[in-house]
Protein backbone atom coordinates (compact mmCIF):
# COMPACT_ATOMS: atom_id res chain seq x y z
CA UNK A 1 0.00 0.00 0.00
CA UNK A 2 1.55 3.29 -1.10
CA UNK A 3 0.62 6.75 0.08
CA UNK A 4 1.10 10.05 -1.66
CA UNK A 5 3.04 12.68 0.24
CA UNK A 6 0.86 15.09 2.24
CA UNK A 7 2.64 17.95 0.47
CA UNK A 8 2.25 16.33 -2.96
CA UNK A 9 -0.31 18.69 -4.42
CA UNK A 10 -1.32 21.56 -2.15
CA UNK A 11 -2.95 23.60 -4.96
CA UNK A 12 -5.28 20.71 -5.85
CA UNK A 13 -6.15 20.25 -2.16
CA UNK A 14 -7.10 23.93 -1.94
CA UNK A 15 -9.06 23.74 -5.21
CA UNK A 16 -10.91 20.63 -3.96
CA UNK A 17 -11.97 22.54 -0.83
CA UNK A 18 -13.18 25.54 -2.81
CA UNK A 19 -15.03 23.33 -5.34
CA UNK A 20 -16.57 21.33 -2.49
CA UNK A 21 -18.16 24.34 -0.79
CA UNK A 22 -21.47 22.49 -0.39
CA UNK A 23 -20.19 18.90 -0.68
CA UNK A 24 -20.78 17.11 2.60
CA UNK A 25 -19.96 13.59 1.37
CA UNK A 26 -16.56 12.04 0.83
CA UNK A 27 -13.39 12.55 2.77
CA UNK A 28 -10.92 15.42 3.31
CA UNK A 29 -7.34 14.80 4.39
CA UNK A 30 -5.51 16.72 7.09
CA UNK A 31 -3.48 18.44 4.40
CA UNK A 32 -6.62 19.64 2.61
CA UNK A 33 -8.06 21.05 5.84
CA UNK A 34 -4.83 22.70 7.01
CA UNK A 35 -4.12 24.11 3.55
CA UNK A 36 -7.48 25.86 3.54
CA UNK A 37 -7.06 27.15 7.10
CA UNK A 38 -3.51 28.49 6.61
CA UNK A 39 -3.91 29.96 3.12
CA UNK A 40 -7.30 31.46 4.02
CA UNK A 41 -5.80 33.15 7.08
CA UNK A 42 -2.83 34.46 5.11
CA UNK A 43 -5.06 35.86 2.35
CA UNK A 44 -7.34 37.55 4.91
CA UNK A 45 -4.30 39.13 6.58
CA UNK A 46 -2.92 40.35 3.25
CA UNK A 47 -6.26 41.88 2.23
CA UNK A 48 -6.65 43.68 5.56
CA UNK A 49 -3.04 44.92 5.43
CA UNK A 50 -3.53 46.21 1.89
CA UNK A 51 -6.68 48.07 2.90
CA UNK A 52 -4.93 49.54 5.95
CA UNK A 53 -2.12 50.74 3.71
CA UNK A 54 -4.46 52.16 1.06
CA UNK A 55 -6.69 53.96 3.56
CA UNK A 56 -3.81 55.15 5.74
CA UNK A 57 -5.41 53.60 8.83
CA UNK A 58 -2.51 51.97 10.64
CA UNK A 59 -4.18 52.09 14.06
CA UNK A 60 -7.60 50.56 14.72
CA UNK A 61 -10.26 49.48 12.25
CA UNK A 62 -11.68 51.96 9.79
CA UNK A 63 -15.14 51.47 8.30
CA UNK A 64 -13.61 50.08 5.10
CA UNK A 65 -11.55 47.58 7.09
CA UNK A 66 -14.54 46.55 9.19
CA UNK A 67 -16.71 45.94 6.13
CA UNK A 68 -13.89 44.09 4.36
CA UNK A 69 -13.23 41.96 7.47
CA UNK A 70 -16.95 41.16 7.62
CA UNK A 71 -17.07 40.07 3.98
CA UNK A 72 -13.82 38.08 4.32
CA UNK A 73 -15.12 36.32 7.45
CA UNK A 74 -18.35 35.33 5.75
CA UNK A 75 -16.60 34.14 2.56
CA UNK A 76 -14.03 32.23 4.60
CA UNK A 77 -16.73 30.58 6.70
CA UNK A 78 -18.93 29.31 3.84
CA UNK A 79 -16.84 26.18 3.01
CA UNK A 80 -15.91 25.39 6.63
CA UNK A 81 -18.94 23.20 7.62
CA UNK A 82 -18.61 21.05 4.48
CA UNK A 83 -14.83 20.75 4.90
CA UNK A 84 -15.27 19.89 8.56
CA UNK A 85 -17.89 17.22 7.70
CA UNK A 86 -15.54 15.64 5.14
CA UNK A 87 -12.68 15.78 7.66
CA UNK A 88 -14.89 14.02 10.22
CA UNK A 89 -15.64 11.37 7.58
CA UNK A 90 -11.91 10.91 7.03
CA UNK A 91 -11.39 9.96 10.68
CA UNK A 92 -14.45 7.69 10.60
CA UNK A 93 -16.92 9.91 12.48
CA UNK A 94 -20.35 11.10 11.42
CA UNK A 95 -20.43 14.37 9.52
CA UNK A 96 -23.40 15.50 11.62
CA UNK A 97 -20.94 16.79 14.23
CA UNK A 98 -20.21 19.55 11.68
CA UNK A 99 -23.59 21.07 12.61
CA UNK A 100 -21.82 22.42 15.70
CA UNK A 101 -19.48 24.54 13.56
CA UNK A 102 -22.02 27.25 12.59
CA UNK A 103 -23.37 27.30 16.17
CA UNK A 104 -19.87 27.71 17.60
CA UNK A 105 -18.91 30.32 15.00
CA UNK A 106 -22.07 32.30 15.78
CA UNK A 107 -21.38 32.19 19.53
CA UNK A 108 -17.75 33.23 19.01
CA UNK A 109 -18.91 36.11 16.81
CA UNK A 110 -21.12 37.64 19.50
CA UNK A 111 -18.66 37.06 22.37
CA UNK A 112 -16.59 40.07 23.43
CA UNK A 113 -12.90 39.52 22.80
CA UNK A 114 -13.39 36.39 20.70
CA UNK A 115 -14.15 35.77 17.07
CA UNK A 116 -13.98 38.13 14.13
CA UNK A 117 -15.31 41.67 14.16
CA UNK A 118 -18.34 41.65 11.88
CA UNK A 119 -19.96 44.98 11.08
CA UNK A 120 -23.38 45.37 12.69
CA UNK A 121 -22.96 42.54 15.22
CA UNK A 122 -23.16 43.70 18.81
CA UNK A 123 -20.62 41.97 21.05
CA UNK A 124 -21.68 40.69 24.49
CA UNK A 125 -19.52 40.05 27.52
CA UNK A 126 -20.27 36.51 28.69
CA UNK A 127 -17.36 36.60 31.14
CA UNK A 128 -15.17 33.59 31.79
CA UNK A 129 -17.86 31.00 30.84
CA UNK A 130 -18.01 32.51 27.34
CA UNK A 131 -14.23 32.39 27.10
CA UNK A 132 -14.17 28.75 28.22
CA UNK A 133 -16.82 27.82 25.62
CA UNK A 134 -14.92 29.56 22.82
CA UNK A 135 -11.56 28.04 23.83
CA UNK A 136 -13.09 24.56 24.16
CA UNK A 137 -14.67 24.86 20.72
CA UNK A 138 -11.40 25.99 19.16
CA UNK A 139 -9.51 23.14 20.86
CA UNK A 140 -12.03 20.54 19.64
CA UNK A 141 -11.94 21.87 16.09
CA UNK A 142 -8.13 21.73 16.01
CA UNK A 143 -8.18 18.26 17.54
CA UNK A 144 -10.33 17.05 14.66
CA UNK A 145 -7.90 18.65 12.22
CA UNK A 146 -4.99 16.82 13.86
CA UNK A 147 -6.46 13.33 14.20
CA UNK A 148 -5.05 10.75 11.77
CA UNK A 149 -7.07 9.38 8.90
CA UNK A 150 -8.72 5.97 9.02
CA UNK A 151 -6.42 3.82 6.91
CA UNK A 152 -9.00 1.62 5.18
CA UNK A 153 -11.94 2.49 2.99
CA UNK A 154 -15.10 3.01 5.01
CA UNK A 155 -18.70 4.02 4.39
CA UNK A 156 -17.49 7.50 3.40
CA UNK A 157 -15.14 6.33 0.64
CA UNK A 158 -11.58 5.25 0.01
CA UNK A 159 -8.59 6.75 1.74
CA UNK A 160 -7.77 9.83 -0.40
CA UNK A 161 -4.04 9.51 0.31
CA UNK A 162 -3.74 6.06 -1.25
CA UNK A 163 -2.00 5.97 -4.61
CA UNK A 164 -3.08 3.45 -7.21
CA UNK A 165 0.09 1.55 -7.93
CA UNK A 166 0.78 0.78 -11.59
CA UNK A 167 2.50 -2.57 -12.29
From TrEMBL:
The chain crosses the membrane at residues 33-54, 66-84, 91-108, 128-147. Keywords: Membrane, Transmembrane, Transmembrane helix. Signal peptide: none annotated. It comes from Parerythrobacter lacustris. This is DUF805 domain-containing protein. Pfam families: DUF805. The keyword Transmembrane applies.
Amino acid sequence: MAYRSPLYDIPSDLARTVRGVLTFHGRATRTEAWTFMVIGSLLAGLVLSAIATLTGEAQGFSTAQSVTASIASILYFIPVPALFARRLHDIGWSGWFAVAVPAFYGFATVTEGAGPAIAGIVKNDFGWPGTIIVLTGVALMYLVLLLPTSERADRFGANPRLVNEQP
